[in-house]
Structure formats: structure tokens, C-alpha cells
Design brief:
The protein contains seven helices and no strands. It has about 180 residues and is mainly alpha-helical.
Length: about 180
């Protein structure tokens, strides 16, 4: 049994290199690979084989985590396309998007301070709908248009949205305790 540690995650799991993936197929492939590479299956082998098994298991788990969620999957596709999205350093966004983010954050803060759980839940629901729209744009940019520059911008937008979703979750949790 051997896994090529240099192959990309899509190849590893037998998936086409696309943003829209068959999640059931990913889950099935992950379980199949895990059953082959799990270190417990190789406990009786030499230290070298045990280390190799650990490398394989680590690679399989890393690939699964990357492909399972849309944001890391999109970032990975950009990386495979040779696009440095500069996610940590490039925070340049359109003025319209930044204004929208400010409005969202203000609404969250006002609802949190007022203890309005219903309002926070409504904001969360609206943000989920908005996130779906952004994910649809990202899918079109990556899978159909192959517009990686636009996709890199959309990935940065999605990062802001996910962070705001976590802020709403935190605010809801704080109010419920």
C-alpha cells in the first residue's frame, strides 16, 4: 500500500479539481483511505513503516480538512492555480463591501448590547443567505470562468463573512449564558 504524498488533495480523494465537489464522495473516499493508512493498522510493522503510515494518515486528514469546507477548498484551488491570494496581508476590499461590513458589525453590536437574541438570530440568518450568494459567485469564478483574480477577491470577502458569523455566534452564546 502506498500513497503518493506529492499528489494534490483532489487526486488523492479521486475528485475532479473543482470548487463544487461531491461531499458524499469525499466522505466515502476519506473513510476508505483512513481504513488503509490508519497507524493502528501498521502497529506491527517496522518503525520506518509506522512513520510512513503516520505521514499518510496526516496527509489524508489534512486533505480532508482542506476539501471539506468551502473557504479552505477555494484557497487551495487558488494555490493550485498558482495564485497567491495574500489572504493574511491583502485586505484591500471595495468601499461598498467595507461599508456593508461596517453596517453588519454595527447591527451585531447594537443587538448584542441590547440583549436582542431574536435580532442576532435574524442577522445570522441573513448573513447565511448572503454567504450562500457569495459561495455561488465563487463557484462560478472558479469552476466556470476560471477567473482566479476575482475568486481571490471573493475568498477574502468570504473570510470577512465567516468572521462576522463567528462574532454573531459568540454574541448569541454570551447572551444565552
Amino acid at each position: 500500500m502506498s500513497i503518493d504524498l506529492t499528489q494534490d488533495f483532489f487526486t488523492l480523494f479521486g475528485l475532479p479539481r473543482r470548487f463544487d465537489i461531491d461531499e458524499a464522495k469525499l466522505d466515502h473516499a476519506w473513510h476508505e483511505l483512513q481504513s488503509q493508512v490508519h497507524p493502528d493498522r501498521h502497529a506491527h510493522l517496522s518503525d520506518l513503516e509506522k512513520r510512513r503510515s503516520m505521514q499518510w494518515a496526516t496527509r489524508v486528514n489534512e486533505g480532508f480538512r482542506t476539501l471539506k469546507k468551502p473557504l479552505p477548498r477555494a484557497s487551495y484551488l487558488l494555490e493550485l492555480a498558482g495564485i497567491d491570494a495574500a489572504l493574511e496581508t491583502n485586505t484591500a476590499m471595495s468601499p461598498e463591501f467595507l461599508m456593508e461590513q461596517m453596517e453588519w458589525r454595527e447591527a451585531v453590536e447594537e443587538a448584542r448590547q441590547a440583549g436582542e437574541v431574536d435580532e442576532l438570530e435574524q442577522l445570522h440568518q441573513r448573513l447565511r443567505l448572503h454567504s450562500r450568494e457569495v459561495l455561488e459567485s465563487l463557484s462560478q469564478e472558479l469552476d466556470e470562468a476560471h477567473d482566479y483574480v476575482a475568486a481571490a477577491d471573493t475568498v477574502r470577502r468570504l473570510m470577512f463573512i465567516e468572521k462576522l458569523q463567528h462574532e454573531i455566534d459568540d454574541a448569541l452564546e454570551a447572551l444565552e449564558t
